[in-house]
Amino acid sequence: MPDWLELSGKSVIVTGGSSGIGLAIVKNLLDQGAYVTNADLKNGDFNHENLLFVQTDIGSKTEIEEMVTIALKKWQTIDALVNNAGINLPALMVDSILAAEKKEMTEAYFDKMVSVNQKGVFLASQAVSRVLITKKSGVILNVSSEAGLEGSEGQSVYAATKAAVNSFTRSWAKEWGRYGIRVVGVAPGILEETGLRTIEYETALAYTRNLSVEELRSGYSSAKTIPLGRSGRLNEVADLVSYLLSDRASYISGVTINIAGGKTRG
Q1: What InterPro entries would the database entry show (predicted)?
Q2: What letters, b where the CB count within 10 A reaches 16 and e where it falls short, cover 31-64?
């Protein structure tokens, strides 16, 4: 059925839309005929006539509000927000592996992840919700992580910020439902490799788990902890996001959907 999701002409803001999951979401929405505003620090190499890039520090209230104003001026309205921007800095809470404390959580790491993953979601959602409350309709979608549901070795602060985002989703759904606003979340598990899975990230995560980078990578490829037997695809996450933003999901609110191939702590 053509245009089944009926997202054509909808105005959607995607934070962190220049790479990884965010870029996949941006492309999917554009394929559906939506108008997309990409709020990111750097513009990607993808361009489209219905795509607006606004350079934005997601942890800055001033820049967030300016971005929303620009999006409103460009598209005349805002129908949805996808809080996708995030950062992950793996580190042990206490590094007893080496006396040098090579990968121990620092206050700077903590502040950076909270600023982007938690404060950024709060600032963007508050700014966009002012528009949606006036319209008495709209969707705010928070991109969480399986780590926020299950916890993650070597990624405790990252997991904690994502757990906070899950709580935002539940609370805001109760707070804004009276205005016709739905708030939903998606929690991806292990996904196919993207440019965001850098050697620096892999080295840090492998260290926290007392593995070599090669052993860490073999764990990704074997997918032995995933019942479906493979890593997820970016387009599968993007498909779910587009569905949840559409009126086809009009009675779904206050939940975070785990998209991880059946993987759970059990």
Answers
A1: NAD(P)-bd_dom_sf, Sc_DH/Rdtase_CS, SDR_fam
A2: ebebbbbbbbeeebeeeeeebbbbebbbbeeebb
